[in-house]
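Dear colleague,

Following up on yesterday's call, I've attached the two folding results inline so they're easy to grep. Please treat them as preliminary; we haven't cross-checked anything against experimental data yet. The first protein's sequence and structure tokens come first.
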Amino acid sequence: MKVGTLKSWSSRGFGIVAVTFSEVYFLHASNVTETPDGMEEPPIGSTIHFDVSPARDGGKYPQAINARIIFPTKLTREETRAEIQKYIYVPKAQDSAKPTDPAKTLATPSADDAKEGE
């Protein structure tokens, strides 16, 4: 069983479920076996649990069958950013480039400089 997110839904009764950016499945309303009470159409962003079947003849995507709509989700800004970060490569900073403390880099008079001034 796979878990995905509903990315689109048509009023004609079908939609697209994505597990990852490149792993996409076709979902038809006849393959939905369980929905939350009173839900006629699944909202975009709903979590979907489903099994996989091969694509129909001429179909572009494999089918999601025995689908269960677990709950509609509404993500906060931080959760949305975390979801986006899953699909974006960000190189990690090198430890060798550590910032320095500006107070320590300022020239301070040494004991030898103090003796010369006397």
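Below is the second protein, in the same order (sequence, then structure):
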Amino acid sequence: MTISTELSLKDAQAQRVWEIFQQISHIPRCSKNEQRVIEWLKKYARERDLAWRTDAIGNTVIELPATDGFAEAPGVVLQSHVDMVCEKEPDSDHDFSQDPIEIIEHNGWVHAKGTTLGADNGLGVSLALALADERDLKHPGIELLFTVDDETGLSRFMKYFKRGATRFYHREILHKSRQRR
């Protein structure tokens, strides 16, 4: 499916985000059932020769190395979750364990046929991955952090993050969160 120009997705970067979102939408990814999308993320990284790592529960980091002239700049972490709310209309026979999400565009709006769309946070994942394909962007080191189990409380992410999921800003984030208590 190609998203119509009614959505103002005329440039190549925006179109690439939608292409990635469509690919993700073909992968079942309810909370606690994210293994297939994690495997897809690892393949995405391998195809681009990017370093990646995954913990025992599925949280995955893909590393985008700093471009020339930015190696000493502070790094950035972009976090998004890979699971989705899996709800369907009462008359839908959609099986979230195996069926892809059917994306429909109508009058400039995007929705799913009989189910939730998965745009939270499928579009966040898509935006982050589109950075991996952006060759002209100058940037510091970027870690794309993809977490699991967000829709049921981020319980698995919090254990992982406290152990040092990312190289960038880890100490500063934890320090600031302790100050708020």
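For the second protein, one point worth flagging: The first strand starts at residue 52 and ends at 54.

Best wishes,
A.L.
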